[in-house]
Amino acid sequence: MDTWILCLLAAAALGLCAVLTRAFGGRFSRARGRTPAGRFSRAGKRAFEPYLFLLPVLLLLLLMFGYPLINSTVMAFQDYKLTAPNNIRFNGWANFAKLFSDSDIGLIITNSLVYVAASVAGQFVLGMTLALALRKKFRGRGLYQAIVFLPWAFSAFVIGLMFRWSFNGEYGVVNDLLMKLGAVGEKLAFLGTPGLSLLVVIIAMIWMGIPFFAIMILAALQSIPADVYEAADMDGCGAIRRYFAITLPYIQPTIIMTLLLRTIWIFNSFDLIVVITGGGPANYSQTLPSYMYTRAFSSYDFGLASALGLLLMTVLAVYAMAFLRATQYNKAGDF
C-alpha cells in the first residue's frame, strides 16, 4: 500500500510540474530571447526562477503532508490493528459504524464542545483584558509583559505536569490552599471526580493560551492611529462608546482570525488531557482528539483512529468556511 501511495504522490508531483510548465510556458517563451549560442536570456531565466525555487517546497509538502493524509484516509476504511498485522483488510464503513455505536461517544462529543467553548471564551476575554491593560504605558511594563507572556513559552507537557501536581488529591498545593482558607473541609480528588477533572484541563488550557490572544490583540491595538482617538475625545465620545465604535471595528480582522485559529488548535489538542487526567475518570475528561490518541496508541486500532481523524478534519474544514462566511472576514476592517 505504501508503494502505490508514493507512486501516486510522484505522479501528482509530475502533474504539478506539467501544470506549471503549461501555465507559464507562454510567459517563459515571451520572456526569453535566443542568444547566438541558443541560451535563454537573463529575463527568461529570471521569469523561471521563482517557480524553480518553489518546486522543492511543493514536493516536500506533498511528501510530508500528502502521504500521511492519503495513508490515514486509506486506513480509515481498513481493519488496521497493530495487534493483528497479518490480518489487515478493507472493511468499508465498519470503523465509522463502530465509532458512532460507542456508548461513550455522546459524552466525548459533549466534553469536546464544552472544552473548546470554555477554553476559547476564557482565553479571549482574559487576553483582551490583558492587551487593553498593557496598551497603556506604566513603570515596569516591559517586565510585566515578559512575565505574563511566559506561559506561551512553556511546552504543553510541562504545563500539564504543573497542573497535575498542583491539583493532586493527596499532596496538591491547590487542596492545601483551599483547606487553609477554610473553603473545603477535606481534600478534593480533582483529577478523579467527574466534572472537576475536565475543569482542571480547561483551567490549564486557558492559562496557557491567554498570552496568544494578548499578543495578537495588543499588536492590533497598537496599529490603530492615535488621531482617531483624539478626534473621538474632541467629540465627547466616552470610553465604552469609543471601545465599541473605534477599537473593535479596527481590530475585528485580528479577533476573527485568532478566534478561528485558536478554536481549531484547541479542538485538535490532546496533550494536556493525556498528561493531566489521561481522559479519566471513565472518559469524563476525554475529548475526540484524546480519544483518537487513546484508540491509536492504547488499543492499537489505527483504523478506528484514522476514521475519527478523517471526520475531525472534515468537521473543522466545514467549520472554518462557515465561520469565515458568518463573520464576513473579507469585509472586516472596512470603513
Give a written overview of the molecule.
This protein is an all-alpha fold and 335 residues long. It folds into 2 domains: 74 residues, no CATH class; 232 residues, MetI-like fold (Orthogonal Bundle), CATH 1.10.3720. 71% of the residues lie in helices and 1% in strands. It contains 13 helices and 2 strands; from the N terminus they run H-H-E-E-H-H-H-H-H-H-H-H-H-H-H. Strands 1-2 form a two-stranded antiparallel sheet. The longest helix is centred in the first third of the chain and has 34 residues. The protein is globular, with a radius of gyration of 26 Å. The relative contact order is 0.10. About 4% of the residues have low confidence.
**Shape assignment:** globular
The largest sheet has its strands arranged as 1-2
Distance between the termini: 54 Å
Rg from C-alpha positions? Answer: 26 Å
CATH names the topology of the largest domain as MetI-like fold
Counting structural domains, the number is 2
The level of helicity is over 70%
Question: Which oligomeric form is depicted?
Answer: single chain
Quickly count the helices: 13
* Name of the CATH superfamily of the largest domain: MetI-like
CATH architecture of the largest domain: Orthogonal Bundle
Number of strands: 2
Largest sheet, if any? 2 strands, antiparallel
Derived structural class: mainly alpha
The topology string of helices and strands comes to HHEEHHHHHHHHHHH
Spans of at least 5 consecutive residues with low confidence: 26-38
